[in-house]
Design a protein that fits this description.
cell membrane; 5 helices; mainly alpha; transmembrane helix; 166 residues; MotA_ExbB_proton_chnl; protein transport
Length: 166
């Protein structure tokens, strides 16, 4: 635990912000996987059962019902995916902000003590590199899973639409 706190001290305050955004992103990603594996099949079965047990009415009413069911289904499937995308875009920017913050500290040390204070400059460089690394790694991992979830959503949408038209 001491090493983790030391790592966060070296990374500066923005590393904590990266941690918070990463935890939020991973919470949403895990919730979406939970939804796709456990809740989506039940939702799909309920909506298809409702569709198949509808009363035979005019074509116009059937089309509106189909559109309403598809809309309800799609809104559940796509819920939270845009937020995951936004968070994966914010993370590298937080890393870049940490880079700038660390380099400002390096320049402050150079301004105050000259280029001879290697220890002071190393702290700023360390902060810059750690926050950059943390922002990029978390964004890349989130980007992979966000793309996977969007692919699953697209396939689920196509499958549901084809089942409605059967």
């Amino acid at each position: 635990m001491e090493k983790v706190l030391s790592f966060f001290d070296q990374g500066g305050g923005l590393l904590w912000a990266i941690l918070v955004v990463s935890v939020l992103m991973w919470t949403l990603i895990l919730e979406r996987y939970w939804f796709f594996y456990f809740q989506l099949p039940r939702l799909q079965a309920e909506l298809l059962d409702y569709w198949r047990n509808r009363s035979a009415s005019r074509h116009f009413c059937q089309q509106r019902l189909k559109e309403g069911l598809a809309s309800q289904y799609f809104s559940q499937v796509l819920r939270g995916l845009k937020t995951v995308d936004i968070l994966t875009q914010i993370l590298p920017l937080l890393g870049l902000l940490g880079t700038v913050s660390g380099m400002i500290k390096v320049f402050e040390v150079i301004n105050a003590f000259g280029a001879g204070n290697a220890r002071g400059m190393a702290a700023g460089i360390s902060e810059a590199l750690i926050t950059t690394m943390a922002g990029l790694i978390t964004a890349l991992s989130g980007l992979f899973f966000a793309a996977n979830l969007e692919s699953r959503a697209r396939r689920a949408r196509e499958k549901f639409t084809s089942q409605l038209t059967e």
